[in-house]
């Protein structure tokens, strides 16, 4: 009797393995993610990594130049006009930028996503009200409103976060509304209604997972936008107040010496640019690797 051949089970990669493969294969995502992870670790480990107290002043060590401009390793990136170590303030400044960007994006994302999904799913009067609110918000210039509110309430970390969180929700609402309109009548949503699923369950289990990749992109864009707005407010003296280390504040404090000591402006400006670039690269990469057409 002829023996039957063994049945070999052929299995493909799991969805998680496919996602990891796409992530590691996306150059832009990897560059942005690596740099962002490094900055997050630097911010978390700031007390360990900072060579000096970022608030400690030493008038005898004012305006020490960085190592690459003839300075010493005692202050690798030099000191500012009050003798504070520039590297230490740069490291602690990462905490401020990441905190403001993350919390402001979460607040605006919660507001905008709720309004956008409700408008797209329910339509009718809900859509009309949300569209009106979006138009009102778009008619308000963000920078001018932020300047006015911060000037009235006073510049502080909590005020800046609250103002930016309440002003940057419009893009979330517009994108989420459009994305929800595209899928609210799809077969899987109709099937969920047919079997008696409640509206909250449909929104949470059917709508949100299918618009999540669009949400990722908006979150990263608004996080970068919030970081830049905080830097602009701090530069104008209406954001984070001294002596709190902030990259925008560091640029503002160094602008008077820019023609003589340009590194005072270039160093925090370059780090701010790299942070925003990394966030945008990672967001664009996440959009590519989580797109529905790549989930097969």
From TrEMBL:
Keyword Transmembrane helix: yes
GO cellular component, one term: plasma membrane
Annotated compartments: Cell membrane
Domain of life, source organism: Bacteria
InterPro entries: BP-dependent_transpt_permease, MetI-like, MetI-like_sf, OppC_N
TM segment ranges: 29-50, 96-122, 142-169, 260-279
GO biological process, one term: transmembrane transport
Domain ABC transmembrane type-1: 94-283
Protein name (record): ABC transporter permease
Organism for this UniProt entry: Paracoccus alkanivorans
Similarity comment: family membership: Belongs to the binding-protein-dependent transport system permease family.
UniProt cross-references to CDD domains, sorted A to Z: TM_PBP2 (cd06261)
Record keywords, A-Z: Cell membrane, Membrane, Transmembrane, Transmembrane helix, Transport
Membrane topology summary: Multi-pass membrane protein
Major location (coarse): membrane
């Amino acid at each position: 009797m002829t023996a039957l051949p063994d049945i070999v089970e052929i299995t493909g990669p799991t969805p998680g393995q496919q996602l990891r493969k796409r992530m590691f294969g996306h150059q832009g995502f990897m560059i942005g993610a690596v740099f962002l992870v490094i900055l997050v670790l630097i911010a978390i480990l700031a007390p360990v990594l900072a060579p000096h107290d970022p608030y400690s002043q030493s008038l005898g060590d004012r305006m020490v130049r960085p190592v690459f401009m003839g300075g010493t390793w005692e202050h690798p990136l030099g000191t500012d006009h009050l003798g504070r170590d520039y590297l230490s303030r740069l490291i602690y400044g990462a905490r401020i930028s990441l905190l403001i960007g993350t919390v402001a994006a979460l607040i605006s994302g919660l507001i905008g996503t709720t309004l956008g999904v409700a408008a797209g799913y329910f339509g009718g009067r809900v859509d009309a009200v949300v569209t009106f609110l979006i138009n009102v918000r778009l008619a308000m210039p963000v920078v001018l409103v932020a300047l006015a509110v911060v000037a009235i309430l006073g510049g502080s970390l909590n005020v800046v976060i609250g103002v930016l969180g309440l002003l940057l929700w419009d893009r979330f609402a517009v994108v989420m509304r459009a994305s929800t309109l595209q899928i609210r009548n799809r077969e899987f949503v109709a099937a969920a209604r047919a079997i008696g699923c409640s509206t909250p369950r449909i929104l949470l289990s059917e709508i949100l997972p299918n618009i999540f990749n669009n949400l990722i992109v908006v979150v990263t864009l608004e996080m970068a936008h919030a970081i830049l707005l905080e830097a602009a407010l701090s530069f104008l003296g209406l954001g984070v107040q001294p002596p709190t280390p902030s990259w925008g504040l560091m640029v503002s404090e160094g602008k008077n010496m820019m023609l003589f000591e340009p590194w005072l402006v270039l160093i925090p400006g370059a780090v701010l640019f790299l942070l925003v670039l990394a966030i945008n690269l990672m967001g664009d990469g996440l959009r590519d690797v989580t797109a529905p057409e790549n989930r097969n």
